[in-house]
Specification:
heterodimer; A: 336 residues; alpha+beta; five-stranded mixed β-sheet; 11 helices; 19% helix; B: 204 residues; 10 helices
Chain lengths: 336, 204
């Protein structure tokens, strides 16, 4: 098994809070930002409430289909983040910067049909039907730790396939040194792409990249599902990248294009704040974000608001045994 | 408006301030229990309390110039409850971060306070509010005389620090913090005479 599981008894304790408590998706939180303001400041700051109204999109939950996959053996030391938390706490700025915005605003995203184009430095460029791919390629479950650059973490049972195996189909040339990914650009469907305020100032479409050896590493997967079912839109339906030893923002969502290239491709967060977010973005407790520590993380697990679990962050998010060799002789303080 | 009804109106507003500051907290308590705060309620709690604090601070700054320009002195009664509510909200914001985000890990808290400028900014603002809250006891007000005004002018600093703290804490998207900072600056410009007087009071 590929998962390294360090002894961490802190994770083993399960607080029981009824699952139903988390499940209310279209939560009242939408009004949160405006809550007190609405009560107190109906005059002077009402411009913000106008924006809030603009953020609202149609409700109605996108259906998720069960997937055929080979399950992973349970990992005793890893406590899964409850499904409702995985699907209600997302960074997907195309649908708003609030953590619950994606769950609320993305349900209308049209994910079927969906094609993924692979081009660039490959012998056989091509476009695949993602829904067909899901049935053909042979899916497997991968239970991975997910560490967000914002210092929170989850454990998520993804369903997907190895990116490397998939890329081999297109026969990368010797000039393929990097892999560039691109999210769907569709301002009609993605309010964050229409409005800079909703989209958090990101230059869309969202782009990400990996070095070719990172992309070919067996831990790197393209995920099409979680908890045994297809991905909900807020988690990057229908297909997204998961690189478990890197910060979550590397896991680009709703991918439409993969291009193999010779030069290091631009990446969205690096473009926005190069001193804060690097190309590599390997989870590293010794290299702090300029504005907060990366030494520890708050694990989002079972339990309510008082079930706080601060835990130390592990180098390469605990996958050092498998991936540290990719970066030997590299100064990880410089290449953060 | 007749003087007597103005007074009654101000009393009503005062009740409104208390309800307006208290009800969202009760709602928050309900929302936590009902799971309305999303997958990671801790962050939502911290943000909600922080934003509420900034809005209350701006509202507090609004009172004096508004009372003056409306010739409605009774409005000034709102300053004390508003200021105290600012302190309550800021304290909840701060303690949520301490207890629920950092899990009362004091070595980590100490490190974060020193190393993270935006946290230091917020902490400084909270210390100011703490000092203002303690000295809002009427007996102290009388005892402190001129110094009381001198101290309580620090609210201007606290508001600016709070906006700055907000600006530096966001991952991206400077527009919202910029709006809050602009409102704060506008409110300070509106009362520029008092701000000038306050700055002068520190010169000797």
């Amino acid at each position: 098994m590929l998962i390294k599981t360090p002894a961490r008894s802190a994770l083993g304790e399960i607080q029981t809070t009824p699952e139903a408590a988390y499940v209310s998706r279209r939560s009242v939180i939408r009004g949160l930002g405006a809550g007190l303001g609405g009560l107190l400041l109906s005059g002077s700051a009402s411009g913000l409430d106008l924006f809030a109204a603009d953020k609202k999109e149609a409700a109605g939950e996108a259906p998720r289909k069960p997937l055929d996959f080979s399950p992973q053996r349970p990992v005793p030391d890893l406590v899964l983040t409850p499904e409702a938390k995985v699907t209600n706490h997302n960074n997907f700025y195309e649908f708003g910067t609030g953590k619950t915005d994606p769950a609320q605003n993305s349900q209308g995203l049209k994910t079927e049909p969906w094609t993924l184009t692979v081009e660039g430095e490959v012998e056989k460029p091509g476009t695949v039907d993602v829904w067909k791919l899901m049935h053909d390629i042979g899916l497997e479950e991968r239970i991975y730790r997910m560490r967000c650059v914002e210092a929170w973490s989850m454990v998520i049972p993804w369903v997907g396939f190895e990116l490397g195996k998939f890329l081999q189909r297109f026969q990368p040339t010797s000039r393929a040194k990097y892999v560039a990914f691109q999210t769907l650009y569709d301002p009609e469907q993605m309010p964050g792409q229409r409005n800079r305020y909703i989209g958090g100032g990101v230059d869309y479409p969202y782009v990400e990249g990996l070095r070719i050896d990172e992309a070919m590493h067996p831990l790197t997967i393209l995920s099409v599902g979680l908890y045994g079912k297809t991905l909900p839109p807020q988690n990057g339906a229908p297909i997204r990248l998961v690189v478990p030893w890197k910060y979550g923002f590397k896991g680009i969502k709703s991918i439409v294009k993969i291009k193999l290239v010779e030069k290091m491709p631009p990446t969205s967060w690096n473009k926005l704040a190069p001193n804060e977010y690097g190309f590599y973005a390997n989870v590293n407790p010794d290299v702090d974000h300029p504005r907060w520590s990366q030494a520890s993380e708050r694990f989002i697990g079972p339990g309510g608001v008082f079930a706080v679990k601060r835990q130390p962050t592990l180098p390469f998010n605990g996958y050092g045994e498998e991936v540290a060799s990719l970066y030997k002789n590299m100064d990880l303080r410089k290449f953060y | 408006m007749a003087a007597i009804s103005k007074k009654a109106f101000a009393a009503l507003l005062q009740i409104g301030v208390h309800l307006g500051a208290l009800l969202p907290l009760l709602w928050l308590f309900y929302a936590i229990n009902a799971g309305h705060l999303g997958g990671d309620p801790v962050v939502e709690l911290i943000h909600y309390l922080g934003m509420g604090t900034i809005r209350l601070l701006l509202l507090t700054l609004l009172v004096s110039p508004l009372a003056k320009s409306l010739n409605f002195g009774q409005l000034n009664r709102l300053r004390r409850p508003l200021g105290l509510w600012c302190f309550v909200w800021a304290s909840l914001h701060f303690s949520t971060w301490l207890a629920l985000d950092l899990g009362l890990d004091w070595s980590l808290i100490g490190e974060e306070l020193v190393k993270r400028t935006y946290i230091l900014l917020g902490f400084t603002a909270w210390l100011i509010l703490l000092a203002l809250a303690i000295t809002s006891i009427p007996a102290l007000l009388r005892k402190m005389g001129k110094n009381w005004k001198k101290l309580h002018g620090l609210l201007y600093v606290a508001v600016l620090l709070a906006c700055w703290h907000f600006w530096w804490s966001v991952k991206s998207g400077w527009i919202e913090p910029a709006i809050y900072l602009a409102v704060a600056l506008l409110l300070l410009v509106w009362r520029r005479a008092s701000v000038k007087r306050w700055i002068k009071s520190w010169r000797y």
